[in-house]
């Protein structure tokens, strides 16, 4: 895992290696190439050694090209052998060199061959190539204007930031797709690449991967469970490969428990707030699971003092609000794991989105089931007028401003919502392509803030595509989402553990409202405003420490 930066030198701050040191504490470097028009182009990187612990050229230069790479390609071994058969010779046992040669051989089409998480920059043939992985696990920002183009893994690397509000992001309380809090800096979208030609200063953007359109052809329960476990076991196995210690962020829920049931890490990390001991007790479920499998569960217990002490760090690493109160617990998990010597952690992001797992999904789907007869009856028109369309009900559900916020959400989500999809299918598509993005921001920034790499087995593109082939009843059944995952977990660990039988699994909130506002509610508005203010303050300070 790394931090990358470069492009037109004046668009990137001069001490960017220092600002991105947390993303790559093991090596730092930059090279300057001259474009055909004579203008310099920077290629830079900070490196965290994960798969190959020895130093390598950073950035790497081969065959007249330069690469800055952030991420992991899990199938780099087979790709390397394929490229060797075509005549390429490799100097390092790294996925970075494989990605560079793959681009030289296949161009942007090389992305379709890769299974991994990545943000990549390649200078070749007088053009700069930038690309992000399918789901957007690794960040990549760019600024383009009359002076040229700059790129970086984090916003703090840019020399100038021009704040501007984004109405849809204000409404959702997080940033996604191309949106950032700054009008002069955009994010490359998940599954997108960019080509910049310095001589003409032209930029071309293309989508190379889209979330698969649901086409259910898997209906048999037994076949579905077997296929899922086969894919999932391999997705976990390839993500456990590293030359450094690997752990897992473990809650008492289905997602991370299923990962641990497959990979069986000897040590795991769980957050438990004492304020939630009677209401959200993850420690109890994890301890029982640990006794069953025989691993060591390490419990992290953040306090109000921890929050107040680390709040500036949280803001400096996260950079903008993500619509969640899980910022603190994720940071504390990563910090403790890194202090204990771990460099890689597995985590369960993505399963709720793909398998209708959120309570808001379950509520809407239960409502649809209970109203089906009314909608089909003689008073169907009255029911549709009163309850609204599925899209309208969804927008009322996710609006953070009550009914006043619904019109803006309707305008935004209408093009993404298809009437020929079922409600369950629309929910999966919207959750995975919009609401998942801020969670991946959290996973990246708060782990890399501690120089720890997080890997997500559920977001293996093969599992994503498999989920789109499942019949709705294999995801949502008997009032609950993630039916298939529940059956898979039961098959692996048996039917009796609490992680299997617990009726409700909460998220990973922190009691920040209780600590700061003396409120036990989980409303995010005040928290978002507080965090955003500190984010802007920290972004100003990284360029001028005297502020």
Q: Classify the helix fraction into a percent range.
A: 40-55%
Strand content: 15-25%
Which structural class should the secondary elements be placed in?
Answer: alpha+beta
Strand arrangement, largest sheet?
A: 2-3-1-9-8-10
Largest sheet: 6 strands, antiparallel
Number of strands: 17
Provide the residue-averaged pLDDT.
Answer: 94
Computed Rg: 23 Å
> Count of DSSP helices?
20
Terminal Cα separation, in Å? 31 Å
User: Unreliable runs, pLDDT <50, ≥5 residues?
Assistant: none
Outline type: globular
Describe this structure in words.
- This protein has 547 residues and is an alpha+beta fold.
- Helices cover 40% and strands 17% of the residues.
- The protein has helices at 16-19, 76-85, 95-106, 167-172, 221-239, 254-263, 282-293, 304-318, 327-339, 351-354, 359-376, 380-387, 390-398, 406-413, 423-448, 461-467, 483-493, 498-501, 512-517, 525-543, and strands at residues 2-7, 27-34, 40-47, 60-62, 65-73, 116-124, 127-132, 141-145, 148-152, 186-187, 192-197, 202-207, 246-249, 267-271, 296-300, 344-346, 453-455.
- The strands form three sheets. A six-stranded antiparallel beta sheet has the order 2-3-1-9-8-10, with no helix packed on it. Strands 4-5-6-7-11-12 form a six-stranded antiparallel beta sheet, with helices on one face. The chain has a five-stranded parallel beta sheet with strand order 15-14-13-16-17.
- Helix 8 crosses helix 20 (525-543).
């Amino acid at each position: 895992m790394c931090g990358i930066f470069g492009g037109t030198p004046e668009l990137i701050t001069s001490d960017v290696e220092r600002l991105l040191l947390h993303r790559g504490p093991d090596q730092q470097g930059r090279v300057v190439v001259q474009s055909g028009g004579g203008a310099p182009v920077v290629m830079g990187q900070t490196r965290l050694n994960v798969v190959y612990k020895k130093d390598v050229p950073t950035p790497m230069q081969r065959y007249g090209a330069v690469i800055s790479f952030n991420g992991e390609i899990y199938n780099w071994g087979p790709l390397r052998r394929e490229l060797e058969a075509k005549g390429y010779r490799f100097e390092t046992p790294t996925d970075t060199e494989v990605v560079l040669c793959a681009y030289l051989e296949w161009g942007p089409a090389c992305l379709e061959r890769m299974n991994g998480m990545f943000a990549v920059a390649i200078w070749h043939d007088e053009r700069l190539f930038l690309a992000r992985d399918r789901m957007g696990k690794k960040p990549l920002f760019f600024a383009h204007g009359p002076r040229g183009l700059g790129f970086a893994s984090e916003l703090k690397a840019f020399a100038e930031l021009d704040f501007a509000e984004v109405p849809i992001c204000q409404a959702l309380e997080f940033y996604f797709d191309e949106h950032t809090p700054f009008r002069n800096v955009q994010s490359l979208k998940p599954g997108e690449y960019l080509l910049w030609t310095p001589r003409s200063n032209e930029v071309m953007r293309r989508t190379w991967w889209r979330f698969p359109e649901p086409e259910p052809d898997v209906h048999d329960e037994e076949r579905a469970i077997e296929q899922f476990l086969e894919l999932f076991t391999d997705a976990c196995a390839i993500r456990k490969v590293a030359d450094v210690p690997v752990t897992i962020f473990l809650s008492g829920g289905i997602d991370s428990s299923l990962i641990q049931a497959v990979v069986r890490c000897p040590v795991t990390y769980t957050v438990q707030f004492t304020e939630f001991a009677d209401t959200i007790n993850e420690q109890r479920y994890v301890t029982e699971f640990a006794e069953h499998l025989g691993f060591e569960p390490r419990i992290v217990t953040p306090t109000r003092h921890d929050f107040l002490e680390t709040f500036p760090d949280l803001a400096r690493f996260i950079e903008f609000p993500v619509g969640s109160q899980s910022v603190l617990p994720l940071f504390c998990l990563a910090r403790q794991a890194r202090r204990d010597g771990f460099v890689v952690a597995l985590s369960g992001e993505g399963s709720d989105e793909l398998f209708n797992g959120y309570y808001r999904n379950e509520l809407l789907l239960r409502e649809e089931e209970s109203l089906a007869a009314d909608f089909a009856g003689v008073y169907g028109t009255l029911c549709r007028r009163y309850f609204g369309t599925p899209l309208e009900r969804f927008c009322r559900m996710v609006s953070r401003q009550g009914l006043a916020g619904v019109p803006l959400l309707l305008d935004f989500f209408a093009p993404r919502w298809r009437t020929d999809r079922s409600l369950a299918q629309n929910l999966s598509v919207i959750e995975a392509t919009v609401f998942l993005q801020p969670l991946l921001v959290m996973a990246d920034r708060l782990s890399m803030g501690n120089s720890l790499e997080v890997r997500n087995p559920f977001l293996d593109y093969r599992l994503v595509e498999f989920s789109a082939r499942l019949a709705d009843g294999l995801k949502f059944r008997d009032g609950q989402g993630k039916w298939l995952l529940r059956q898979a977990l039961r098959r692996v660990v048996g039917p009796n553990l609490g992680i299997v039988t617990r009726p409700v699994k909460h998220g990973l909130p922190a009691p920040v409202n209780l600590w700061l506002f003396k409120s036990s509610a989980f409303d995010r508005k005040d928290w978002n405003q507080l965090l955003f203010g500190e984010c802007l303050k920290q972004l100003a300070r990284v360029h001028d420490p005297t502020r």
